[in-house]
Give the backbone structure.
Amino acid sequence: MDSGDSSDEGPTWQKDRVLGDWESSMEYAQHVLVGGKTKLRILFLQDELLSLAKHAGRSIIRAIVFVVFTTKDLNLSQIMDIFRLLTLTYPRYLDARSREAVEAVGMELIRRDEMRGLSEGMPTETKFGVAEQIVGWLSNEVGRLAKRSSPRWGLLFNSYSSLVTSIFSSYASSDIFVLLSWSCGIYNTCVTADSDFPLTNTWRLLLGTLATLLDMLSGCDNAKKSVVNGALVRVRRALRSVRRVSCLCRRGVQDSCLFRTAPKYWR
């Protein structure tokens, strides 16, 4: 999907020149994702950004007798530029198809990096640490949301549930659900690629973020029961997705604030 505008006015997107004109391409992508119509942004996410995340600057050089494939991969800065664009969407998109398309791009950015250094992936390459960067962003974003409202009114109540409700009730449950879905997707992607992922600090940070998001969602006055139940189903499915790490998952959940304060979620 080229922008179709060959003039010099404004940013453009030309698939074969994205890496060579990165700044303009990202500006055009932001315009589509933030200001474009729903159908257009879904197509752009699926046909352009997902393809870029999967194949980067893959090109074909044709000779008389043979065809040679050459690839110029994204660097860490470019990967995070794409992810930054995705972070602009979670408070904006209300339709499931747009959200699913965004999540697919984000998970592919992580999956591709997790395959670096693996014999079944890209054995000669070294990981950039994309998952660590994104999990760090998630943790900071959730912390920012949690601090947006002062807990001073909640201190008037004795119960933990009242405190949670007073702090988080002003947040859109849909936003929290999106961040929780991303967290579950990251979990599935990383554990599938690396069975030792639950031994890392990133895994512990991710699990704590999941616990906090579930607490926030359960404390939202405007959260529909179906949304809360959907979040619980999504988390349980993620934690059970890889049986080899089930014991580690259970231990991590038991150590989390969510399990200590609301063990009923995990029954």
